[in-house]
Amino acid sequence: MTRIIAGAAGGSTLTSVPGTGTRPTTDRVKEALFSRLEAYNAIHGAHVLDLFAGSGSLGVESASRGAATVDLVESAEKPAAVAQRNADLVNRVLGWTAARVHRTKVETYLDRAAEDLSWDLVFLDPPYPLQDAPLGAILTSLVPHLSQGAVVVLERSARSPEPQWPEGLERFAEKKYGETRLWFAEPA
After folding, report:
1. Which domain of life is it from (predicted)?
2. 167 and 132 in contact (C-beta within 8 Å)?
3. What share of the chain is helix, strand, coil (3-state, %, to 5)?
4. Which of 160, 150, 158 is nearest to 175 (CA)?
């Protein structure tokens, strides 16, 4: 069982995706991640993008903590339906639509994003088997949509090598939590 940890919807139980097709971020990792993001002042008023959103727990946590907008991108039917339920929950508590679900492939979403659209905080939690080349292409597509001072958080297996950061994006921190490694990057 996962929950929204803090903010307007803090303590609310989130719907989880049934089965083993997704890998939810544990509450322990989520608490540590959001403590760090709050120290960076990266959440309040931010435009957030949650790629490979799964249940949308990172995005809706951001909305609960004061993000201005949250775009949850998930291509699979069941996880997208769960993300919609979780977005509806946080939107209901907030009294307005902060979180929106986009059921499409990440690559398609980024290719079709308006040229002037930018995000301040981006979460990427791709399936662990995703190879370096497609991940690099996604990161490259993301670069022109990052605001100045944006923070990109990439969640991977602790056994995965550091991704090849494209031109315009550089790592500034990393942290390992058991089987999970978080990479933090910013516009170069």
Report:
1. Bacteria
2. no
3. 30, 30, 40
4. 158
| pLDDT band at residue 9 under the 50/70/90 scheme | very high
What is the model's pLDDT at position 92?
98
Structure tokens at 109: 């979403």
- pTM score of the predicted model: 0.95
CA distance 57 to 62: 9
Question: What b/e sequence results for 120-156 when a residue is b if at least 16 CB atoms lie within 10 Å of its CB, and e otherwise?
Answer: bbbbbbbeeeeeeeebeebbbbbbebbeeebbbbbbb
pLDDT over 80 (residue 25): no
The two structure tokens encoding residue 113: 């994003």
| Cα-based angle 105, 55, 142 (whole degrees, multiple of 5) | 40
What is the mean pLDDT of the segment spanning 76-104?
A: 97
For residue 93, the tally of other CB atoms under 10 A from its CB is 17
Question: In the structure encoding, which two tokens stand for residue 173, read together?
Answer: 């921190």
SS3 for 131?
coil
pLDDT in tens, 154-170: 999 999 999 999 999 99
Pull the structure tokens for residue 25: 């971020």
Here the tokens at position 100 are 């929106």
For each of the domains in the chain, give its residue range(s) and CATH number, in order of start: 28-187 (3.40.50.150)
Residue 82 has a CB neighbour count (10 Å cut-off) of 24
pLDDT value, residue 21: 58
Strands 180-187 and 169-177: antiparallel
